[in-house]
Amino acid sequence: MLGRNGLVLRGGFRFGPDEAAPPGPAGLPARSILLVGQAGGAPWPHFLRRRREQPPDLADPLDDWARQVIGAVAAEFGARSVSPSDRPYLPFQQWAMRAEGLRPSPLGILMHPRYGLWHAYRGALLFDVEIPVQAPREVIHLCDLCVGKPCLKSCPADAHSGGGFAYQACLDHVRGTAGEACRTTGCLDRNACPHGAAYRYPADEQAFHMAAFMR
């Protein structure tokens, strides 16, 4: 089911007995978690086919699609599915770092040794039982090896710096007349990263995410 929709398991772990784990399918603290996400733009054509059947004014069509796909898998395997957009927010980035051994890039996106910045987490499966989970391998953090840091030098609004993400400056630029390149081809800083270029999202997918950011 996941593979047929371009999604993949991204690793997992077991919660410790003293951790504040979210509820599993039975309502008690979950014992194990598997993260589900994407590598590159593989899910995009599958989502586009589903988008034709969704209401045109749906607020979060990609999240809705991912919830349906991951929810069906959860029902099949006796798990509870959760999404990064669920409220209250769940610590997906911390879970991802723990499951895959990744660290944040200067843009805040986790840097993957193969996919670069072109990956995402679309949901997770929570289990009431302990399941076999492979410990993450130690991975090279590619940002440590990058001297030029082009991801911090390509934004016309200088939205990313050592001081963090200048959200309002980015939003104002993308919405303005000078932000057409960002709106149509995606974040210039993100696209400037040389790693994982083979997995870069297609332009229409990047434009979709930028439009969601502007709302």
Secondary structure blueprint with pairings:
Blueprint (H helix, E strand, L loop, with lengths): L7 E7 L17 E8 L4 H8 L9 H17 L2 E3 L9 H9 L2 E2 L5 E2 L7 E9 L14 H4 L14 E2 L2 E2 L1 H9 L4 H6 L2 H5 L10 H12 L1
Antiparallel strand pairs: 1-2, 2-6, 3-6, 4-5, 7-8
Give a short synopsis of this structure.
By secondary structure, this protein is of the alpha+beta class. It is built from 8 helices and 8 strands, in the order ββααβαβββαββαααα.
Report what the structure shows.
- By secondary structure, the protein is of the alpha+beta class.
- It is 33% helix and 16% strand.
- The protein has helices at 44-51, 61-77, 92-100, 142-145, 167-175, 180-185, 188-192, 203-214, and strands spanning 8-14, 32-39, 80-82, 103-104, 110-111, 119-127, 160-161, 164-165.
- It has a four-stranded antiparallel β-sheet with strand order 1-2-6-3, sandwiched between helices. Strands 4-5 form a two-stranded antiparallel sheet.
- The mean pLDDT is 95.
